[in-house]
Write a structure and sequence with these properties.
Length: 150
């Protein structure tokens, strides 16, 4: 999922869309739970002290985390994964599975997800970070060395 907590906040509150959103309590002991991609352009990252995030982007909108809501949305995402897994036979390739999952997440939950497709989970996880946000990266077996080299 792309900037999951921040994306859920932006989805549910149209006033937050397109703006730098930081999911965190304000305060000296707080850390950033998630940062929207708009906030990331200022250098804000998850696990960063909230006071540092506020210094990096004074106009950032701080939203307190709502873990109950995030758990509910995460359950919906997992339900999509389970449903697709139950029907794997209808997909011609792993790439088609990734495309289907991303499309359902977008259509049903109005959220974006990035995906990586590769010969193993480790490479797929690395690949999923390559084209964020809302991207797909496919690493074919013959391309593993070239993918990992950089």
């Amino acid at each position: 999922m792309d900037a999951f907590y921040a994306s859920v906040e932006q989805r549910d509150d149209p006033a937050l869309r397109g703006r730098p959103v930081v999911v965190a309590w304000k305060g000296a002991r707080s850390v950033v739970c998630a940062a929207s991609y708009e906030a990331r352009t200022f250098g804000i990252r998850s696990a960063m002290p909230a006071v540092r995030a506020e210094r990096l982007c004074p106009e950032a909108l701080f939203v307190p985390p709502n873990f109950t809501r995030y758990r509910a949305v995460a359950r919906q995402v997992r339900a999509i994964f389970r449903d697709v897994t139950d029907h794997l036979g209808r997909f011609p390739s792993a790439t088609a599975v990734a495309v289907a999952i991303r499309a359902r997440i977008r259509d049903e939950l109005q959220l974006t997800a990035s995906a990586g497709v590769a010969p193993n989970k480790f490479l797929a996880k690395i690949a999923s970070d390559v084209n964020k946000p809302d991207g797909l990266c496919v690493v074919k077996p013959k391309d593993i060395d070239a993918f990992l080299l950089p």
